[in-house]
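If you are new to this repository, start here. Below is one unmodified record pulled from the training split, so you can see the exact layout before writing a loader.
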Amino acid sequence: MIARYNALPDRKFKLAETAKRLSKWVKEMDQTRPVTANLIIPVASLASGYADALDVVGFSYQTNQYHWSKKNYPNKLFTGTENSGGWQDWNSIIENPMVFSMFMWTGIDYMGEATNKWPQKGWDGDLLDFAGFKKQGWYYFKSIWVNKPHVSIGTTPLEGSGFESDSLSGKAVVSSKKVLNWNNSKANMHWNYKPGELVVVEVPTNNHVVELFLNNRSLGSRSLSDNPDRILRWVVPFEAGTLTARAGFEGQEVESVLKTTSAAVAIKLSVDKTTLNSDGYDVAHIIAQLVDKDGLEVKTENAELTFNVDGNVKVLGVDNGSNDNIQDFQSNKIITSKGKALLLVQALKDKTGKINIKAKASNLKSNLVVIQAE
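And here is the target side for that same chain:
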């Protein structure tokens, strides 16, 4: 690689020289942190001298270049500055101790890079949606990064999933390898489908073996050793009731449960803090979730909510987390997505007192949330 680079004719723009100037400029402003760059072709950046300007050499997805880079540049520090986030990416870090970390692209959904048609407005392949609500990918990464025993359930219709059903074993067989390349799953976190509809059940876990149950009936076990992306899968004909994924670890049993929900009958409000500092900056997040008669979260219905806020506080805005959401953010009204919405309120400068918040929709009412501004 180095010989090939040196054989190239001179270019108008010198990568190494430009990188050194940029690094020097950065350090003139901030000497507290190391300088890195997200290198699209790391081996070329190393060979050209570009990487010499960096304190930490950043790799953009190119995990297959880790070994060569460390072999030829053993004294440099390496990290993955942009990774898709599958098990394969994380495993490449584990197997290459000289690469000390990875940064997943991008952790939370963001506006821009909208590759599909309107009304999609951004990139939604991440762990948290636009409102900061957890998606199935959050739990997948928990199963990879956290040592504590973990199991969770996601579901998606078999049709269009990239999988096929093995009718004998009930296993989900890959029909398109693309589904394993970027594991930020868009699986649903509910168990509400049409009777008999074939559903792929995904179970991210760090347990070696997981058994799946539907209404206390075993649907068999799956093991991590048989699944290269560390997501266990079953194809299950939908039947209303309770879906349970259960695993045992060193005498401890862990499980995840999804239950079929009925129609929404109320709005459940929750808040991340009940006290606001009256500094004009402090913010509280209020989550509204549709629930059924049993208090289960309803994720297959939506409703237009109106938030009623009474007290010394500023309504910053609302969101429902959806990439298709084109409603006004600066409002006290919003249609939920997957039965959920977010309200943000901010304290006023030197204004204290009690703040009462409720939500309502057609035939639906909420509990009262009380926040104290101090």
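Two things worth knowing about this chain: The two ends are 63 Å apart (CA to CA). The longest strand covers residues 283-291.
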